[in-house]
Known about the structure:
Layout: H1 2-13, E1 26-28, E2 34-36, E3 40-43, E4 59-61, E5 67-69, E6 75-76, E7 90-95, E8 101-103, E9 107-108, E10 112-117, E11 123-128, H2 159-164, E12 166-174, E13 177-183, E14 190-196, E15 199-201, E16 204-205, E17 211-216, E18 222-224, E19 235-236, E20 240-241, E21 247-252, E22 259-261, E23 270-275, H3 278-281, H4 283-297, H5 310-316, E24 325-327, E25 337-342, E26 348-350, E27 353-355, E28 360-363, E29 371-373, E30 376-378, E31 390-395, E32 401-403, E33 406-408, E34 412-418, H6 428-433, E35 437-438, E36 441-443, E37 446-449, E38 465-472, E39 477-478, E40 480-483, E41 486-489, E42 494-500, E43 505-506, E44 528-531, E45 534-537, E46 562-569, E47 572-578, E48 585-588, E49 593-599, E50 606-612, E51 615-625, E52 628-638, E53 641-647, H7 658-663, E54 671-675, E55 679-683, H8 687-693, E56 713-723, E57 726-735, E58 738-744, E59 748-755, E60 762-770, E61 775-785, E62 790-798
Parallel strand pairs: 1-3, 2-4, 3-5, 4-7, 5-8, 6-9, 7-10, 8-11, 10-12, 11-13, 12-14, 13-15, 13-16, 14-17, 15-18, 17-21, 18-22, 21-23, 22-24, 23-25, 24-26, 25-28, 26-29, 27-30, 28-31, 29-32, 30-33, 31-34, 32-36, 33-37, 34-38, 35-39, 36-40, 37-41, 38-42, 40-43
Antiparallel strand pairs: 19-20, 44-45, 46-47, 47-50, 48-51, 49-50, 51-52, 53-54, 53-56, 55-62, 56-61, 57-60, 57-62, 58-59, 58-61
Amino acid sequence: MKHHTALALTLLAGGVSSVSAQNLPVVRVTADNTRITESCRLEIAPDAVIADTDGNGVIHIEADGVTVDFAGSVLRGAPAGTPWNELTGTGVRLEGHSNVTIRNAKVHGFKVGVYITKADGLVFEHADLSDNYRAHLGSTPEREDSSDWLFPHHNENNEWMNNYGAALYIEDSSGITVRNVRVRRGQNGILLDNVSNSKIYDNDCSFLSGWGLGLWRATGNTITRNAFDFCVRGHVEGVYNRGQDSAGILMFEQVSNNVIAQNSVTHGGDGIFGFAGIDALGEPERNRERDRLRRESGEQNVDDKIAYSDDVLEKHTRAGCNANIFAENDLSYAPAHGLEMTFSFDNVIFRNRFVENAICGIWGGFSQDSLIYENLFDGNGGMAYGLERGGVNIEHSAGNMIIGNQFINNRAAIHIWWDGLGDFGTLPWAKTSYRGVTSNVIADNTFIINDEPRPFHRVGENEKRLAFHFRNDGGPFKNTVIVNNTFDIDESVGKKMESSGQIEVLDDGPIPGFHNPSYEVLGESRPIEIINGIPYSTRTKLRGRDQIIMDEWGPWDHESPLLRQLTKGGGTVVYEALGVGDDLTATADGEGFEVAVEPGKVEGSKRITITAGEGVVPYAVRLSGAGLDQTLSGTIIKARWLGRTFSWKDKVDPREDFEAWCNLARAADSRPFSCDTLNLKYGHGGPKDLARSGEISDTSGHLTEAEIGSDHFGMEAVGRLRMPKGTWRIKTVSDDGVRVYAMTGTGGNQMVIDNWTWHAPTPNEGTFSVDTDNDLVVLRVYHFEIDGFSTLTLDLERVD
Length: 800
């Protein structure tokens, strides 16, 4: 048996395998903790579900140099239909064995599909690791839930895997090959932790809610011809675009000297999200030194006394995600950035496509000495927040070369600026590596600005598209060389330059020498097609950010049917069925409501609208056909809400004196309103904006003229409902404080929800009981806004 295994590995290195599954002995997997000690073919009963009962893996591979072939068998850790966020355990575990080949693995229903440690020379190929863990998302088509944000900054103790799951997790290994792995309907695809000198190619980990490929302290790897598309959360086109730190490719904590070429990495939260790392910046050392000085001095403000040894400073000199080659990738249609690479050095960004990324094509804050060469930047910045927007945006840029690129109709093609450092200057990285804004070169680029439309949603009145935007808030901004560029600007919509502060710009100067990068491209798949030197994803029908369609679990794959709720309120609930074509029927099961089905906005979709009259109406609607067999059920509420809104600016803080604050609702400068549903999405506006848009009724006719702004306003609303007997749940999403009271005929007045604090959009819920049918229930809702974004929504559902 050992002779056959050695022969297989030798031929595999040449790209051919002579050992077929039929030539391997069979191991039947029937229970947890099955041990594999020789090359074999696995057999698992088609209907078997084998849970990882002790959390250490179902199948354990415990020998060097073996080949394990699933040969069509499927390892399932949970029954079909188990919610993805309830999946636990590990499917396959390999630890401490080298030159192992795992082939044709189909592993579903686990928190971690395959977990591999210290496995130099591994070959992992031809696998389907779909339908493993993913979190349930709180964000909806109407609003973002901030609890959906990921936090990839720590992975010293496998936080990525433990917190967020993985289809395939490999750590502390070198010289491995991962190819032809497919992942769908999960959160994370392939996560590599301390993996070096390895080959990752021909994989498709797309339509995930986290990261397609995650790299932590990974060096010297070749990553080519993969598809990591639609790895995204936190986006609804035209409503909000957060990305929430999802990414097609994640690169954290000194991920260096890798080749990332000819990949399709579109529609990710970021296409590629790279950060030097907390350890690279020296945050732990800074915090320890700060704590020591505070203890010894008894003072809190000790930052001016922080000093480091030469060894510490040397460790953090030019530490980052350095000397990577990003070449011929499609990095388009991200809710945030096509490529984010911060606090890093010597990267080469060559012939990539950056089209219609919502914030910017490249965000390179504090990065230095990198080459951005012969890329296409088109239509970036359409849903930007603030001034960070457009093609290339680099805060504190030093020594970067932006050469030979094409910039077409970006909000700002190149934006470089200096702003205050705060306590960043106390970090070891800053003390040894920070140079200010200096010695940047912008040469041989083409800038085209005209009135061709782009998907821009947040554009200021009379705003013009810019070729250059330079800003200096008081620091060093020197020796910016701008030479040999070509401009074709329609001045009615565009402008060459906008600047503020002291900027040194030179129209003559040397261009440092450079050369085209040399790199190896592996793989037989073609996720991108190169046209006139520019890489285009071969998912041609899915171009545009509007193709990102989310439900409560993640992005739609544009293949399988998807059903999601769009809106609810005012006596109506609306669902959308995607990927169903014309073959869909809806049948009402109950009385007191009506169902209408009509074509949706997306090709092959249907819109299902359920409408009820006054009061509280339970509904059930059976959908069938087109791969769907599902019943929609819930409760529709239609009530007339009467309320008053008011300003509390410079008056009473609601957190300090609730009763006095409530009295402001009865003051002469408060204003009445009414609405059919509490679905008050103020955004960055206020009550006057909702009155102007018709979302609430200005019952006095004077609300739009009142001195009630978008900050420091309050609201009290009362709704009266005839309700059936039972236990009911009230659910709110608020920014900022909310309190809800329910008064029933027999139960008195009860506080159901109390989150009377400053907070981001936050869901809350509470229950109350109705003891008699057709009881009159009075709901009283209080809400206050401090500043910034604001929202208040309320829903009611039956518990029993």
